[in-house]
Amino acid sequence: MHSIRDYLTEEHRRGDSLYAKLEELVRSERWKEAEEAFKAFEEDVLTHFKKEEDILFPEFERTTGITMGPTQVMRVEHAQARELLERMRSALEGRDKKNFLAVADTLMILLQQHNMKEEQILYPMCDQYLDSLELVNRMDSL
Amino acid sequence: MSQGLSLLQAPPFIIVFGFFLTACLFGVFASFFELFLSIKGSFNLPPLVHLYTLGFALFTMFGALFQMLPVVAGAVIKNPKPKAFLSYILLLLGSTLMFVGFLKRDYLILGAIFAYLGIVYTSLLMLWHLFKVKAYIPTPMGFRYALGFLLLGASIGLYQVLSYFDLVPFWERAIYVHLTLLLFGWIGLLVASVSFQVVEMFFVAEPYNKSFSMNFPLMVLFGLVLSYFGGFFSVPLVILFLSYSYMTIRRLIKRKRGMEPSILFWYMSQTFLIISSLLYPFIHTYFLPFLFSFLVFFSSIIMGMMYRIIPFLVWFHLSNMLAKRVPLMSEVIPYESIRLNFYMHLLWVACIVLSFLLNQKAGFIISSVVHVASSLFFLYNVYTGGRLYFELKS
C-alpha cells in the first residue's frame, strides 16, 4: 500500500529522470527528440501539480483548516515552475541551447528544493491527517 | 501543526549571504596569511588552521544551516535575524580574537570564550529546533549528531586553551580528540548528511543505501569513540568515510544529469576526502598532508555548494517578491566564472603538492599567490552575485 509520501515522491523521481533525458537531448542538439522529451516532461510535471492542487491541497486545507500555510507556498512555487517551463518551451522552439539550459538549471533547483519541502514536511503531515489510501487512489485516477 | 507554517518562513537572504560573504573574507585573509608564512618560511599552524576552520568553514556551515533547517528539516527558527546576528557577532569576535591570540597570546582566552559562546548558542538554537521535528530522511538526523560533535569538539578546544594558561590540567590527547571530533564529526558528517539528500536530487543520481545513510551518524559516533585509542582503532572511521566517498563518486559518475561546473568541485572534494581518510591513521607522521587534504576536501565542497546556493537564492527571493527583473542562476554567477575558479583552485592544490614533494620554498610562495588569486576571485563572484539581489530588489 502506498502512503501519500511514497506515491508522490516516486512521481518526483520519475520527473527527474524525464528531465535528465530532456537535458541530454538538448545538450546534443537532437531538437526533434528533445521536443518530444519536453512534452513528456512538461505533461508529467503539470499532471503532478494538478494532483496536488486539485485533490491533495484542498483536502489538506479542509481537514486541517490551514489555508495560508504550506499549501499556499507550494502553489506559489508551482506558478514559478510553470513560468520557467514556458521559458524553456520558447528556448526550445528557438533552438537556443544556452538559454534553454540556463532556464532548465534554475527550474531543476527550484523543483528540487520544492520537492524536499514536500517530502520532508508536507507529505508526512498529509499522511498523518488524511486518508492516504483514498487520496492516492483519487490522484492515481486523474 | 505549526511545523507546516514554517514553509512561509525561509530565512531572509541577508542572513545566508552575510555568513557566506564573511566566510569568503576569512578565506581571502587566510590565503594572504598563507602567503606571509610562505615568504617567512615557517608555518604557524594554529592561526592558519583556525582561519580556515572557524572563519571559512564554520561561517559557511552555519549560514547554510540557517537556510537548510526549514527547507530540509522543516525546523523553523522564528524571527531569525536577531538570533543570526548574535551568532554572527560572537563568532566574528571569537574568530578574529583567536587569530590575534594565537600570534600574540594576549587575546587567546577571550577569543576562545567568544567563539565558544557563539558555537554553543548557535548549536543549541539549531538543535532545539531540530529536536522539535521528526526526521523522515537522513539529513536532519546527521545535522543533530554533527552539531553535537561540534559542541563537544569546541568544548575540548576551550579546555585546551585554558590549559595553555595553566587554568586547568594539561590533557595530552586533547588536540587529537579536538581535531578528530571537529573534522570528521562536525565537517565530515555535515557534508555527508547534505550529500545524502542533494546528490540524488540535484544530479539525478541513484539514492544512497537507506540503511547506510540513516545509520551513518551513529556509525560515525562509534568510529569517533574507537578512534580515541588511535592507530588501528581509527580504521573503522576511515572505512566509513572511504565508503561514503566511494558511494558518492560512483553516484556522480553514473548521474543522469549533464555536466555543470559545481560537479568538478564535488569530484575534487571527494578525492581529497579519500586521501585525508587514508592518511588519518598515520596522522602523527603525516600531520601536514592530512590537514592539507582535509582542507581541500571541505574548501572544494564549500565552493561547489556556495556557487549553487547563492545564485538560486538570488533568483528565488527576487522571484518571490515579483521583482521587475529576475536573473536566472547562470546570470547571477556565470558558469564560465565558476569553471575558471575551479581551475584556479585546482592549480593551487597542484602547486602545493608539487612544492611539498620538491620541498621548494619558492614553490610554496607561488602556490600561495595562486591561492590568493583564487580566494579573491571566489569572494568577487559571491559578492557580485549577492549584490545583484540588493540592486534588483530596490
From TrEMBL, chain A:
Domain of life per record: Bacteria
Domain (Hemerythrin-like): residue spans on this chain = 4-126
What is the name listed in the Swiss-Prot or TrEMBL entry for this protein?
A: Hemerythrin domain-containing protein
Q: Name one GO cellular component term.
A: plasma membrane
**A Pfam family the protein falls into:** Hemerythrin
Among InterPro entries, the record links this protein to:
Hemerythrin-like
UniProtKB/TrEMBL annotation, chain B:
Q: Does Manganese count among this protein's keywords?
A: no
- Where do the coiled-coil regions begin and end? none
Q: What is this protein called?
A: NnrS family protein
Q: Which key words tag this protein in UniProt? A: Membrane, Transmembrane, Transmembrane helix
- Key word Acetylation present: no
Q: Which residues cross the membrane?
A: 12-37, 49-73, 85-103, 108-131, 143-162, 174-196, 216-242, 263-283, 289-319, 340-358, 364-383
Per the record, the domain of life is: Bacteria
